[in-house]
Amino acid sequence: MKDGDCLQILKSLIFLLAGQFLVLLAHGEVHYYDFVLKETNVTKLCVNRTILTVNDNFPGPVIRIHKGDTVFVNVHNQGYYGVTIHWHGVKQPGNPWSDGPEYITQCPIEPGSNFTYQVIFSDEEGTLWWHAHSDWTRSTVHGAIVILPKEGTSYPFHTPDGDEVLVLSAWYKVGDLYDELDEAIKSASDLPHSSGYAINGELGDFSNCSSETTNHYTVEYGKTYLLRIVNAVVNAELFFAIADHNLTAVGMDGAYIKPINSTYIMVSPGQTIDVLFTANQSPGNYYMAVRQFSSENPSVTGFDHSLGSAIVEYSGGEYNSSSSSVNYPHNLPQNLDMKSGREFVNRIRSLDSEDYPTSVPTNITTRMYITVSMNVLCKNSTSCSEQAMGNMLATSLNNISWVNPEMDVLQAYYRNISGIYTEDFPDFPSIMYNFTSDYDDYDLNLVVTNQATKVKVLEYGESVEIVFQGTTLLQGSVNHPMHLHGHSFYVVGLGYGNFNNETDPQTYNLVDPPKVNTFGVPKSGWLTIRFTANNPGVWFWHCHLDRHMTWGMNTAFIVKNGGTKESTLRPPPSYMPTCTGSSATGHIRTRNSVDDEGKDKSLHSLPLYG
Questions:
Q1: Alpha helices for 416-463 (secondary structure H)
Q2: Longest dimension (CA), the chain
Q3: Burial group, residue 156, by CB count within 10 angstroms (0-12, 13-18, 19+)
Q4: Which are the contacts of 573, defined by CB distance < 8 A and separation ≥ 6?
Q5: What does the cofactor section's free text say about binding (predicted)?
Q6: Once rounded to an integer, what is the mean pLDDT over residues 58-79?
């Protein structure tokens, strides 16, 4: 028997023993899953591609549990390069070791090896999701998490007659997405746009070579269904609608909201929305469809114009969805419909009921004002000429563009290893200016960013308020869906233009603000969130547009231990992956990634998942 085989068996035994032990400790049920990651040939849009999948499926398997359960997922990496999995929106109390972002809480799982995640659920209820957290690997490695109410309890609305998971994904027609991604970073150009949008893996009738595989969903007249919608798209907010039908949004990001009746929804990358849909129209066939909502300037940045679709079929009729009788979704907003996008977002409120109360922090102990910006990195470290050829596109938070360290931040923090990160992430921008002015010039004092691995340290129990301020630098104003790991946060305010510290706080909603883990900083506007830092560990936060995360719009919180066992970071598993040069997948820039000639020294030459 080979040493590697022995190691695999040992890890499996550890996995099983840990699981049996925790059955005794967990408040809910304990579940076990095996995820096998490997390359799979898939044909879409008339082109065959090799993509990384989980258990040969795109999207991957649905995890279905009850509130408060614990899940063990043994991830076997049979791909070619390192990968990690993130459990998006799961707070993982005291257990950041299983949160998943590479070089933040762990090193990648090496090819030919495995790692068992312990996913601890607490107060989450509704729909969340999981995805790869290694570069753009999540474009094909993702799936839904369904969290049912605790046994013996029910929904805060009439129990639906059925539910359906709808994972919305982007599809890239290019032969090798990651070669294009690699080349775009090397040439300092924009990153590739998708070729189509899929509903549960299929693009539908409006895409080439796709009609035969269009998904069909059968409904019965008069019945109500719960649609669990996940935006797993890498770089786009989406509109969703069903032709001629009303939708009622009742949940978001694993929490309930006040019902929103609408003919459409808007969902940002990383967000999940639970929607009730009643089959109350004339029996027939109706398209459900998704279309990109683009808040960007179309003359600066292009976008995917495609329409992803599936068909809702009423049962018992004598109609045929292969004919021209499928009703078109005229109620689906157009790509650039800012009014519809804003109107939906502005209606979101927490349920705030006796069973699901809000708990908005009021005595704020830490205040931060964070600019989210498009930037450039200079061609070399000493000079940066105006719009110089070779200057590299970048993004930043308070003019700091994140670079991955050589080992994960969590391990360095836990073992008190110096030189991996610094604890001086700024609470405020270094330069105050008119953030939302129409900048036609190329002011080097504003657009050039600094690379660093800076984190913000919080005491346990601190009440934190962050104002995110959008900017218009490089004509890059766009909605930024910001995601915080390990916590949910309350969105207490949002607006347009520059934040006014005297008048805007008077508009805050402290009664029933949305409680979410991902929410958009509006284009040329601001967003205020509040949360309590009550989960010890290292927690990543970043823009969930992967093109912006790739360029550096990320950082991390370190939440220190509290004074009790429950508020103390647990020790790491003995079988955590170790960082090696071969594990790097390298599109979030690593330290010292730009040399004196302006060439990105990240490990671009390594092929990535495609």
A1: 444-447
A2: 73
A3: middle
A4: 14, 18, 97, 116, 118
A5: Binds 4 Cu cations per monomer.
A6: 98
Looking at residue 375, the DSSP 8-state letter turns out to be E
**Residue length of the chain:** 610
In tens, the pLDDT along 206-219 reads 999 999 999 999 99
DSSP 600: B
N- to C-terminal Cα distance for the chain?
Answer: 33
Measured distance CA(390)–CA(186) in Å, rounded: 9
Strand (E) or helix (H) holding 291: strand 285-293
* Cα angle 210-212-218, degrees, rounded to a multiple of 5: 110
Whether the bond between 59 and the residue before it is cis, its omega within 30 degrees of 0, is yes
CATH topology of domain 366-579: Immunoglobulin-like (2.60.40)
**Is there a contact between 422 and 580 (Cβ–Cβ < 8 Å)?**
no
Q: Three-class SS of residue 276?
A: strand
What's the pLDDT at 319?
59
Which of 204-218, 314-328, 442-456 is most confident? Answer: 204-218
Backbone dihedral angles phi then psi of residue 203, each to the nearest 5 degrees: -85, -30
Q: Give the Cα-Cα-Cα angle 301, 306, 308 (nearest 5 degrees).
A: 135
Ramachandran region, residue 541 (left: φ > 0; alpha: ψ -120 to 50; beta: rest): beta
Report the phi/psi class of residue 365: left, alpha or beta, with left for phi > 0 and alpha for psi in -120 to 50.
Answer: alpha
Residue 454 CA to residue 511 CA, distance in Å, equals 34
Q: For the segment 407-446, what is each residue's pLDDT rounded down to a tens digit? A: 999 999 999 999 999 999 999 999 999 999 876 556 777 8
Task: Give me the residue spans of the domains in the chain.
Answer: 3-148, 162-346, 366-579
Lookup result for tokens 């940066």: 384
The answer for residues whose C-beta is within 8 angstroms of residue 23's C-beta and 6 or more apart is 30
Residues 6+ apart with CB under 8 A from 241: 247, 263, 264, 265, 288, 289, 329, 331, 332, 333
Chain centroid to Cα 353, Å, comes to 28
CA 201-204-206 angle, to 5 degrees, is 140
> 3-148: what fold?
Immunoglobulin-like (2.60.40)
Q: Which CATH architecture has domain 162-346?
A: Sandwich (2.60)
The span from the CA of 514 to the CA of 200, in Å, is: 27
Helices (H), 98-208: 177-186
Same fold, 3-148 and 162-346: yes
The separation between CA 382 and the C-alpha centre of its own chain, rounded to angstroms, equals 36
SS3 content of the chain, % helix, strand, coil (to 5): 15, 35, 50
Look up residue 281 and give its two tokens.
């129209």
- 348 CB-contact burial (10 Å; exposed 0-12 / middle 13-18 / buried 19+): buried
Entry pTM: 0.91
